[in-house]
Design brief:
Layout: E1 9-13, H1 16-26, E2 30-31, E3 41-45, E4 53-57, E5 75-81, H2 84-96, E6 101-106, E7 110-116, E8 122-128, H3 133-136, E9 146-147
Parallel strand pairs: 1-4, 5-8
Antiparallel strand pairs: 2-3, 3-4, 6-7, 6-9, 7-8
Length: about 150
C-alpha cells in the first residue's frame, strides 16, 4: 500500500450555517451543491477532487475542542497561493472579515498564517517558498521556525 495524497478532511461543527460562511465566504472555498443528506452537512472543493472538506453539524451542545496539549489534530494546512503578495492578500481578507490571525511563521519551506475556524480548529494558510525549497532539500521541513514579516 502507498498513500497517494490526502483526500479530504471531515469536521464536526456546532452551527453549519456559521461554518459554511467561514469556509465559503471568508476562505473562498467552493461549496458543492447540496443533495439529499440524512443529516445537516456541507461539502467544499477547490476542484482538485470531488471534495476536500466535509462539515457535519452536531449542534450547539457538542463538547468543545480541549485547549492545550492533547492528542488529536493540531491543525490542517491550506495552500492559498504562490507568493508573499498572495499571502498578504489573504491576510487583508481575513482582517476585513474580522478573523483573528493567531500566528505567522516562516518555516523556510512555507510562509504561513494561522487562524481558528468558528469551532476552534486551527488552520494554516500558506504559500510554498519559491523556488520550492522542499523539493531540493526535503530536510528543510524541519528547519527552525522564524517569525514571519509580511
Amino acid at each position: 500500500m502507498s498513500i497517494r495524497e490526502l483526500g479530504h478532511i471531515v469536521l464536526y461543527v456546532r452551527d453549519l450555517q456559521r461554518s459554511r460562511q467561514f469556509y465559503g465566504d471568508v476562505l473562498g472555498w467552493n461549496e458543492l451543491p447540496r443533495g439529499e443528506m440524512p443529516f445537516p452537512a456541507a461539502a467544499f472543493s477547490s476542484g482538485r477532487t470531488h471534495h476536500e472538506l466535509l462539515l457535519i453539524e452536531v449542534g450547539p451542545g457538542a463538547a468543545p475542542i480541549p485547549q492545550g496539549r492533547r492528542v488529536g489534530m493540531y491543525h490542517f494546512g491550506l495552500k492559498v497561493g504562490e507568493t508573499d503578495d498572495d499571502l498578504r492578500e489573504v491576510r487583508d481578507t481575513l482582517q476585513a472579515h474580522g478573523v483573528t490571525i493567531v500566528g505567522a511563521s516562516d518555516h523556510t519551506v512555507t510562509h504561513s498564517l494561522y487562524v481558528l475556524d468558528p469551532d476552534g480548529n486551527e488552520i494554516e494558510l500558506y504559500i510554498d517558498v519559491q523556488p520550492a525549497v522542499w523539493k531540493e532539500h526535503p530536510e528543510a521541513v524541519f528547519a527552525p521556525i522564524k517569525a514571519l514579516t509580511l
